[in-house]
Amino acid sequence: MSAIFKKGEVITNDYFTGTAYLEMLVPEGAEYNCPIGNVTFEPGARNNWHTHDGGQILLVTSGEGYYQEEGKPAQKLQTGDVVTIPADLKHWHGATKDSEFVHLAITTNPQKGGTNWLEPVSDAHYNAL
Length: 129
Ligand code: MN
Description:
This protein is mostly beta strands.
């Protein structure tokens, strides 16, 4: 599997299950007001449930993964998929069990705030997908 953008460094915060990497392609800052990160999830890795104060757009560049909004079935994602996530909507995203998953994460309306991390996606929930 050939990567398009730099993989970056392992994410070391407590808001992911499994191993994921982040490379900020466009840093936070007032000049462009449009942070863009390249996120790589190893198979089985996913982020916690969370919300974004200003929303988020995901552009899938490689592999297979999931996106799930609270109260709805998980959506399977593959290369080329685009996900638009409204502000304050509880959701998570990550890889499938058997595939790496890579997406660009664009922070929309960053002036409205950041990401609010919630509980992990449990193994029981994830393994039932
Ligand atoms: Mn998100």
